[in-house]
Design brief:
The complex is a heterodimer of chains A (about 525) and B (about 60). Chain A is an alpha+beta fold. Chain A is built from twelve helices and 25 strands. Chain B has one domain (about 15-60). Classes of the chains: A alpha+beta (about 525), B mainly alpha (about 60).
């Protein structure tokens, strides 16, 4: 039995079925998982109303996505739930890699201080969803969360999306300006539109088990190739809150999913790993996976995000993190279209940028999978070679691939390129997400607001009539982390951040003309440097 | 833009006959499987020494 106490959310008869006037919603969000709920909150922070339709009435069954990366935590923090998640979650930054019975190497993901958020936390998806649902309640006029409202039909014209919805009280139609499909890997909306979902399916089966046990293992990611306690290729151990440990065991391509899910069978495998330590099974799943994506994430006024748009292998934690980063990219654009009548072409930049990000995640996850599941004697030989060398020579550690952990995409269609002769830090190139840094007794990324934001380094903030309307302005004092992350060898800098905190331009001297040009480039799909497919 | 580095295809080894003999000797007493594993490790060690990804791509083609 699960340790988590699942409390169903209340279904209420929607206004359309209780004789009230049907409302028009600027945005309808399909699916109340981490991605859909984040979208509702992000839109609300931009003052945009949405309705969230979910076919179920509980949070995620099973811990599912557990690893949340720094960039995602920064987004959750912007949404107002980051601190709560970090407080509850298990913070970790060290990973250890074992081959058979010896440790080959360890890594530390966050060696630099000066970030509000840690490199990673582990937090069960049900907790993440619960916190997001509770945060939605802070916006009663902007978020209408409807449980047991299953979308069964969708159509659109050039101004409206019409949804057909089934509830315990019957069916109704709902009209929205846009629909965001966050309805997961098996996305019904994707099927309703008849969109193909192309990619590679991997035959390899994995056992995932959450066990509750008292143990004093450190908060680290432990990964084994050819573990002594398990006949399969690999094993992973990860600590979650509430004394729950995530165990992932590779079973091979021939494993029988039903047989392997039997509790006796699972318990025996875990005993082999944990010895005589008492434990209780909390959740078990046997899975295989695919790496696939939609060709396009934007279909007229219907936009796909998260697993509905792209699925990856779990190694690297790029599924859940990639989905939240989709929302970060999408919502400020939707808000601009809805509130300021910016042309809907702006959504094309969501398509371009998040397809690029998805491809990065897909290629990282496919490479990890192919290292972990050698398909031939030759592939096995190279895996062995890398593992054996990794214990003796440093370079080979980099070849060992147990998952390349989620990092945010730096969009290559950067809007304004910096002058090449300047020695700017690479991590702050246009397109990259802004790095956090201490700012007074607060943090840089906590202060950027919901609009474009200008950061002034080594120079005062200009007079307000010299600034574009509505931009947030911050003067940042040079500290070691600021120099390293923003200045390099320069003494002066001006950075322009988009509402999603990705860098839209950087200059040594402020000029209103430069900034205005970069702001308009950031909301225009005009990417001559980017050769992504359309 | 720096010019692309080229794979050296002219003779570049100082003691080529000696290297060839040592390469064979390194495999002495190994089973086929051990030899293949040794070769795989050797490829990775040499590839890291070369480093440059353009040169490595050309090497992958040259060896076909």
């Amino acid at each position: 039995m699960s340790r988590y106490d699942y409390q169903p959310f209340d279904y209420t008869t929607p206004p359309e079925l209780s004789g009230k006037t049907a409302e028009f919603y600027p945005v309808a969000i399909i699916g109340a998982g981490p991605v859909g709920l984040s979208a509702a909150i992000d839109l609300a922070l931009h003052g945009v109303r949405s309705v969230v339709l979910d076919d179920n009435d509980v949070v995620s069954v099973g811990s599912r996505a557990i690893c949340w990366a720094k960039r995602t935590l920064e987004i959750f923090d912007r949404l107002g739930v980051g601190e709560r998640m970090v407080e509850k979650g298990v913070t970790w930054k060290v990973g250890r890699l074992f081959h058979r019975d010896r440790e080959v190497y360890s890594f530390d993901l966050q060696q630099q201080a000066g970030h509000k958020m840690p490199a990673f936390i582990n937090l069960q998806q049900y907790h993440v969803e619960q916190y997001l649902v509770e945060r939605c309640a802070d916006f009663p006029d902007l978020i209408d969360l409807r449980w047991k409202n299953k979308v069964t039909g969708i159509e659109q014209d050039n101004s409206t999306v019409k949804l057909h919805v089934s509830t315990p009280d019957g069916d109704y139609d709902l009209e929205a300006g846009f629909a965001v499909a966050c309805d997961g890997a098996r996305s019904p909306v994707r099927s309703m539109l008849g969109l193909s979902f192309e990619g590679t399916h991997f035959d390899e089966r994995f056992l995932i088990a959450d066990v509750e046990m008292k143990a004093d293992f450190p908060s680290e990611r432990w990964f084994w190739f050819e573990p002594p306690f398990h006949s399969g290729q690999s094993a992973l151990l990860h600590k979650q809150p509430d004394n729950i440990y995530r165990i992932d065991l590779q079973l091979g391509a021939d494993a029988d999913a039903q047989e392997e899910s039997r509790p006796e069978r699972v318990v025996a495998r875990i005993k082999a790993m944990m010895g005589d330590r008492p434990f209780e099974l909390d959740w078990v799943s046997v899975y295989s996976f695919q790496c696939a994506r939609l060709e396009r994430f934007v279909h007229g006024r219907i936009v796909f995000a998260g697993d509905a748009a792209h699925v990856v292998s779990p190694f690297g934690a790029r599924g859940g993190n990639g989905g939240i980063q989709d929302i970060d990219n999408l919502c400020w654009k939707l808000a601009r279209i809805i509130k300021f009548q910016v042309p809907t072409d702006l959504l094309e930049t969501y398509n371009t940028e998040r397809v690029e990000a998805a491809d990065e995640n897909l290629s990282n996850s496919a490479r990890a999978t192919s290292f972990m599941t050698p398909k031939s004697a030759m592939e096995k030989r190279f895996q062995e070679a890398a593992l054996k060398l990794a214990g003796n020579v440093e370079f080979a550690r980099a070849l060992v691939n147990s998952g390349r952990l989620s990092l945010p995409c730096s969009y290559t269609g950067a809007h304004e390129r910096c002058e090449p002769e300047q020695s700017w830090p690479e991590c702050a190139r246009p397109g990259a997400p802004a790095q956090d840094a201490p700012l007074g007794d607060d943090w840089l990324l906590s202060r950027t607001g919901t609009n474009f934001c200008l950061l002034f380094f080594g120079q005062p903030i200009p007079d307000s009539k010299e600034l574009p309307d509505g931009v947030v302005v911050l003067e940042v004092e040079a500290s070691d982390s600021v120099r390293q992350r923003y200045l390099g060898d320069e003494a002066l800098a001006v950075y322009l951040l988009r509402p999603d905190q990705h860098i839209a331009g950087r200059w040594t001297q402020y000029s209103m003309a430069d900034v205005t040009r970069a702001m308009s480039a950031a909301v225009t799909e005009n990417r001559e440097n980017f050769d992504g497919t359309h | 833009m720096a010019h692309t580095e080229q794979l050296v295809t002219a003779l570049n080894m100082t003691e080529h006959d000696e290297f060839y003999a040592e390469l064979l000797r390194a495999h002495d007493g190994m089973s086929d499987e051990e030899s293949q594993a040794f070769n795989a490790r050797l490829i990775l060690v040499l590839a890291n020494h070369i480093g440059n990804s353009e040169v490595l791509k050309q090497a992958l083609l040259a060896a076909r």
